[in-house]
C-alpha cells in the first residue's frame, strides 16, 4: 500500500478500482473480504470496510448476503469513463491552457504529443 497522505480507506478503494480497470478483478468477480484486506495491509477491518462501502455506495460493487462483495457488471467502463474525465481535468486542461499561453497551436501540440515516446 502506498502511503501518500490520503486516508487508508481511500487507498483501498483506489486499489480495488485499479484492479477492476486492469481486469485482475473481473466484473461479477468477488473482491477480497474486509478481513482479507485488513490482514494483508495490516489495517483495522473497519478501515477496509469503509473503502469497500465507498465502492458499494458508488455502484461499483454489490453485495451477496452471506457471501461477500462482487464487481458490478459495467463497473470497468464506468471507472474508465470517470478516470478519463479526471485525467482531462488534471492533465489535459492545464496542458492546453499552458500551450495557449505559449502560443502553441493545437496542431503543434498534437505533433509534440505524437513525438513523445510512451513506454509500457
Q: Could you characterize what this model shows?
A:
- This protein has 120 residues and is mostly helical.
- The chain folds into two domains: 8-75, Winged helix-like DNA-binding domain superfamily/Winged helix DNA-binding domain (Arc Repressor Mutant, subunit A); 76-115.
- It has five helices and two strands.
- It has helices spanning 8-21, 34-41, 45-57, 75-101, 106-115, and strands at residues 61-64, 68-71.
- It has a two-stranded antiparallel ribbon.
- Helix 1 crosses helix 3 (45-57) and helix 2 packs across helix 3.
- The longest helix is centred in the last third of the chain and has 27 residues, at 75-101.
- It is elongated.
- The model has no long low-confidence stretch (mean pLDDT 92).
> How would you name the CATH homologous superfamily of the largest domain?
Winged helix-like DNA-binding domain superfamily/Winged helix DNA-binding domain
* Spatial strand sequence of the major β-sheet: 1-2
Report the mean per-residue pLDDT as an integer: 92
Number of strands: 2
Descriptive terms for the model:
2 domains; 5 helices; 60% helix; two-stranded antiparallel sheet; 120 residues
Briefly say what this structure is.
By secondary structure, the chain is mainly alpha-helical.
Amino acid at each position: 500500500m502506498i502511503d501518500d497522505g490520503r486516508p487508508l480507506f481511500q487507498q483501498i478503494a483506489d486499489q480495488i478500482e485499479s484492479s477492476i480497470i486492469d481486469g485482475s478483478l473481473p466484473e461479477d468477480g468477488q473482491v477480497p473480504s474486509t478481513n482479507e484486506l485488513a490482514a494483508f495491509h495490516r489495517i483495522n477491518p473497519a478501515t477496509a470496510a469503509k473503502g469497500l462501502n465507498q465502492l458499494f455506495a458508488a455502484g461499483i460493487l454489490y453485495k451477496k448476503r452471506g457471501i461477500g462483495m462482487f464487481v458490478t457488471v459495467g463497473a470497468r467502463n464506468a471507472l474508465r469513463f470517470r478516470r478519463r474525465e479526471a485525467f482531462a481535468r488534471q492533465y489535459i486542461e492545464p496542458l492546453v491552457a499552458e500551450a495557449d499561453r505559449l502560443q502553441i497551436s493545437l496542431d503543434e501540440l498534437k505533433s509534440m504529443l505524437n513525438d513523445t515516446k510512451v513506454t509500457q
